[in-house]
Amino acid sequence: MNQRCGWCGNDKIYQEYHDQEWGEPLYDDQALFELFILETLQAGLSWITVLKKREAYRAALDNFDAHKIAQYDETKYESLMQHPDLIKNKLKMRAIIHNAQCYLKLKAEYGSFSDWLWQYVDHQPILNSFVELSDVPTKTEISDQLSQDLKKLGFKFVGSVTIYAFMQAMGMVNDHVSHCFKYKVDIK
């Protein structure tokens, strides 16, 4: 049996996410936008709560089509707030629409969300060497800077802790602990 990072416990959804997605370098703008929105929803919640609702969000948010989300009106917002499988947080729901607009502006100005993000680590994943889960930081100087820059661009729910979790999830930072079978995976 493979040893995993302790945070994924015994939950099958969590284990599959850990084994197949978390820490894998992600470069596709569409996939990054989806992950970004999901990470911003996590603020104040556990990741498993958001992860279990991912399919409901895909269906409700037009498969995370930023162009469509950026155009959502008050009627669509209200229908999302009534959706039985989504998190009922008014500020987060408004932030989804607002962040889609900011995302499109960023892409228009810089060309690629992926390239803009990856520049913070010179386009190479950072491979850390932590032994214990308790050694893994919740934020870093890079996440502080990225958080500040996202806020300057108008993004919401982008505190440094949220952004560091996003960096880990998208593989910008590989924080698999040293006894995890995913530690030192081939980074492409």
TrEMBL record:
Q: Which residues form a coiled coil?
A: none
Superkingdom of this protein's organism = Bacteria
Q: Which PANTHER family match?
A: DNA-3-METHYLADENINE GLYCOSYLASE 1 (PTHR30037), DNA-3-METHYLADENINE GLYCOSYLASE I (PTHR30037:SF4)
Please give the name of this protein: DNA-3-methyladenine glycosylase I
